[in-house]
Structure formats: C-alpha cells, structure tokens
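Review the following:
>
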Amino acid sequence: MEEKPIIAKAIIEMLGAPADYIFKTLKDYIITQKESGLNVIKEEYHEPIQQEKLFSTFVELELSFKDVNSLLSFCFDCMPSSIEICEPEKLNVPLLEFNGFLNDLQTRLHDADMIVKTVRAQNTMLDNNAVAILQNFIVSLLKDKPRTIEEISTIVGIKLTQLRPFIDKLVEQNRLSMEDDVLKIPA
C-alpha cells in the first residue's frame, strides 16, 4: 500500500538588513531548498518590516513530504518558526523509524548544547581578555603621570559610570591608588 504524502504549512522567517537584501536572501534560500529536493506546493512572501535597526520578513509555504523522516529533516534543516500538518489526519510511524527520529533528535540537541557551551566559554575568555586589555591600558596611561578618572574616561572612550567598576577593581588589587579622583600607580 502506497503512503499518502504529508502536506504541511510552514513559516520560515529571516532577520537582517537592509530590507531588500534580507528579502532576496530569503527567496534565494527557498530556491536552494527547492533545488535540494524540497517539494513546495505554494509559497507566499511577505515584505520586510522594520524592527529597530533590522528588518524581518517571512515566507508561508505549503509543502509535500513523502514521509515523516523527510518532514522531520526539513524541520531540523530549515528550522521553521511554525509548522502545521494539514493531511493526512493520522500518521502511522513504525517503531524503528520513530526510534531513529528520537536518536537523531538527541544527537542534534547534544550538538546544539555543545555549540552553546563552546560559545559561552569563548565569550567568557573574550570578556576576560577585554577586561585585562582595558586594565593594562589604564595602568599604562598612568605610567607617565597621575590622571583623573575623567581624563582616563575621555582617553579610553568609555563613559565614567561604565569605567568606574574597572578602576575600583584596580584600586582593590593595589595596582592603582586613588586620592580625590586622581589615580596613580602606587610606589
């Protein structure tokens, strides 16, 4: 017995700038997906809408899938913001196929989790390096002569309120001393 195709509606969104670029990028993305075998029955593009400095656009798709696996692959690969199965009313998925899906889902979740953890670790390292560079720059500015916090703020281009915690930390570590908002390197 031949399985009926799965008909689904999906929405794929994109965010970026400028508006014409993001609109063209979305259209090109759908063309690429169709060339890769995505069976698009109907597509309706929506003009970009400005959201602060970026633009968002989306396409509503009606799609046909030969089986549950191809539907799930589409969901993983294209990450639609919304998907709705229109027909058939009931899906019969063999246990072996469903187990394969669950294992694939777990693998992809673990991969995504590892990426998030790696990016967090990299961000922490970058933040620590940026703090060290800023602190070393402040200390370097004071090698020639003592300066006020306002002078340092102007030189480094960071608002006084944002710079203050870094200076306080340097004073706490005894790398700097401060008297009447004048900073110097301790003797």
